[in-house]
Amino acid sequence: MSYNKTASITAETINPKVKIFDYEPCGEIARHAERLEQEMEKSPGSRPFPEITYCNLGNPQALGQRPITFFREVLSLCDNPALLRRDETRMLFSPCAINRARKIIESMPGRNSGAYTNSQGIRSLREAVASGIAARDGFPSRPEDIFLTDGASSAINLSMQILIRSQEDGVLCPLPEYPLYSASIILHGGTMVPYNLSEDGDWGLEIFEVKRCLEEARIAGLTVRAMVIINPGNPTGQVLSITNQEEIVEFCRKEGLVMLADEVYQDNVYVEDRKFHSFKKVARSLGYDENDISIVSFHSVSMGFSGECGRRGGYMEICGFGDDVMGEIRKVASVTLCPNIGGQILTSLAMDPPKLGDGCFENFMAEKEDIRLSLAKRAKTLSSAFSSLEGMTCNKVEGAIYAFPRIHLPAAAIKAAKAEGVSPDMFYACRLLDATGIAVVPGSGFHQVSGRNKAAGTCHIRCTILPGEEKIKEMIPRLKEFHESFMNEFRDRS
Amino acid sequence: MSYNKTASITAETINPKVKIFDYEPCGEIARHAERLEQEMEKSPGSRPFPEITYCNLGNPQALGQRPITFFREVLSLCDNPALLRRDETRMLFSPCAINRARKIIESMPGRNSGAYTNSQGIRSLREAVASGIAARDGFPSRPEDIFLTDGASSAINLSMQILIRSQEDGVLCPLPEYPLYSASIILHGGTMVPYNLSEDGDWGLEIFEVKRCLEEARIAGLTVRAMVIINPGNPTGQVLSITNQEEIVEFCRKEGLVMLADEVYQDNVYVEDRKFHSFKKVARSLGYDENDISIVSFHSVSMGFSGECGRRGGYMEICGFGDDVMGEIRKVASVTLCPNIGGQILTSLAMDPPKLGDGCFENFMAEKEDIRLSLAKRAKTLSSAFSSLEGMTCNKVEGAIYAFPRIHLPAAAIKAAKAEGVSPDMFYACRLLDATGIAVVPGSGFHQVSGRNKAAGTCHIRCTILPGEEKIKEMIPRLKEFHESFMNEFRDRS
């Protein structure tokens, strides 16, 4: 009986789609940072910095952001509904949280927060989300159109699963992009159709450029089905102007493209002259209803003021699809049975937070504003610091949680990178990490330099603005010192 | 500017893979039951039964199963770590839960249970799971091989994503099957290769039958990459004998098939003469190590004594894949960033529960045994009741949470079903629901009747054993009365 492993799985026989995508925010740099951290635990003082500063991943609570008290109290009570029957609970939880938890538990199957729910999520929680959307936009939202999801990632994957039939189906995505999009499109067997954001135009979206990309894709035989727009932008930190948003809506409507609106940073806007407007609101304001345009909006509790990444809560609102399509989407959602209940609860709380008159309103608002103001301050400090460095330019961080400065590297640095077989931005990011412990993601991780991109060859890093204000103050001199010595080393050789 | 929706999404232009699979546990019968429930809310007394009894979905807590106190206390504390700093907490939580929660929180990024974790899950929780597996099997388990997941469903989807390259790749699956498998194989573009379980052999697995199916598939040009085995069985309720398990291991080893071992019902075994043995343990006991056979084992907190379905916690243990393949799997896992933290915590608690000497050990064991004994009693009562009915036979429910009786329908009933354009088992299940409010899933939902199955044309229903003992006592007379009148109606016409 000979041993036969021919059909078994190896790097050669794995699904090749898995092999061709990359996912840099959790990739090379993250792994190198973890190795350094382990090394420093074993031999403290072995590196010229006290700790690794993880600016590679948008992970607020890992960098010290405090969770919102009201959210955690409600979650804690819903996990252990027995607490709702005990008097002592009033010593540890606010009446506000107790009331909300009671209301949530009463709407749950089995009244104990451990049963499978409807695959779209618990109806009452979807009603809370829909009412939050309606209050935000001034246009109605229906609970039937809301799918609660395990974070935005699973919602985006589900959308691609529904849309993509074959490699002949294309999806327009921005460059630089959040690499979940290319990964998901590749895994679902489709073709990404990249369009370039304009760095010179504050990372805005130029319709003539998108049109050019769409037309080229059509000439190449692709059926372009949808367009991804990330607003506020990741990795770019831009907030689109309303005029720009209106142009995009008109464009998608005219071209029959489903809008996939990544709006997970809607609560992260830091500048006075820009506000967040959902694409659905912009479309409705232009007079377009469900019959005119199809829009899927993604949101999550990972960012914003909640920063509850690990909880995997989110929603998508699907407007302008027929009932039969909605039925199919529900069926696909039911294959994984339901989104996790903790994430469902959190999403309802974030979209339907305490109101004026609720006992905990003031405290909630204070915590929320503290986080927003502090992030705004950090956004400014960090982008100014980057801009002050030789050969670096950094657009204003209007929203989201990233600075995305461009670095004009000396020719010798580019040559050295080539000699090591890495991209120049990866070369810079690795040097930065080794010298300072600051982990950032090279722009190439967002495919800034790929394809026929007119910005090909430009060099960027994405750095989150998430370390606390004190930490950022410590970080900046380390960053400056490294950058100067790096530039000196390679300028002299050029 | 004409409106062009040609590329937009309709039932005709949706990904056709989405359209061809069905998922009956959340399908037709479930929707009909929900409609009835809404109707009864509006007009109470409109139906000859007091409520809908949802026996269609394995959803223990929706049917009254109580969560394990220790689990919920730990979850509640981890959600609100501020409680760990308050004295009053001791009045509401056991010291045992407080200690465990403290330990968990200390091992978390940012120490507040809201940050993204490692994509495989938090290391310390994976260590707890690995130690639980080692204690269960008597063979070592490594935290590097553990992936914490959002329930077993997402783990199964991830495995299919890794394994399936094209329609030429096949995966052996049992018939009757849990329909997640066919859905996932179809969505990932592969081909399901069904093998029949033997109803006459207590739903055991006959190697010659699997071999026949494998060979036919190979002749048809398929590369069969893996074999799914569900033990204890869903929907069949069987527990495989150790001899049968050994045969299966030898077979997969010889044929170079990856074993996909669905072991989510490992804590649901009700008969003295059968025990749960993991396939990894069976393989290791036969002397086979990672170089001999590749095994992926799926487990979750949804079933067993925890019944925490809505929490979406689970793990997969991957053994016998190379480092490069493991790297690719980690990359795919990182696209959805990380499994939800509540589910991660619960999974660690279920696999590493309180031990003798821990303050809450007795209470934990009492709760656990109560649930198991009660389920064992319900399994017996329900299968006996089914077997006592005219034309029904029901194998013993040895494990899992389902009875899967076979119904020999009168010819006139089969004719009537045909006239209505539904399968005979769907016809029976609909009649049952309308008359009694009891929702079950027809056997065809598990593809019992599909393809070249020698059992094609047999008629089954799957009924969970989850309603409480009192509820089951009420259900049985309703079931009997319906069945008698159904048989009378159609026997006389035959």
Architecture blueprint of SSEs:
The structure is a homodimer of 494-residue chains.
Chain A: H1 16-20, H2 28-42, E1 53-54, H3 69-79, H4 89-92, H5 95-106, H6 123-137, E2 146-149, H7 151-163, E3 169-175, H8 180-187, E4 191-198, E5 204-205, H9 207-219, E6 223-230, H10 242-255, E7 258-262, H11 279-285, E8 295-300, E9 314-319, H12 323-335, H13 341-351, H14 361-387, E10 392-393, E11 402-403, E12 406-407, H15 411-420, H16 424-436, E13 438-439, E14 441-442, E15 461-464, H17 469-493
Parallel strand pairs in A: 1-13, 3-4, 3-6, 6-7, 7-8
Antiparallel strand pairs in A: 2-9, 4-5, 8-9, 10-12, 11-15, 14-15
How does this structure look, described?
Chains A, B: Belongs to the class-I pyridoxal-phosphate-dependent aminotransferase family. Alanine aminotransferase subfamily. Chains A, B: Pathway: Amino-acid degradation; L-alanine degradation via transaminase pathway; pyruvate from L-alanine: step 1/1; Photosynthesis; C4 acid pathway. The structure is a homodimer of 494-residue chains. With 494 residues, chain A is an alpha/beta fold. Helix content of chain A is 44%, strand content 13%. The first copy, chain A, is built from 17 helices and 15 strands. Chain A has helices spanning 16-20, 28-42, 69-79, 89-92, 95-106, 123-137, 151-163, 180-187, 207-219, 242-255, 279-285, 323-335, 341-351, 361-387, 411-420, 424-436, 469-493; strands spanning 53-54, 146-149, 169-175, 191-198, 204-205, 223-230, 258-262, 295-300, 314-319, 392-393, 402-403, 406-407, 438-439, 441-442, 461-464. Chain A starts with 15 loop residues before the first helix and ends with a helix. At the A-B interface, helix 1, helix 3, helix 4, helix 7 and helix 8 of A face helix 1, helix 3, helix 4, helix 7 and helix 8 of B.
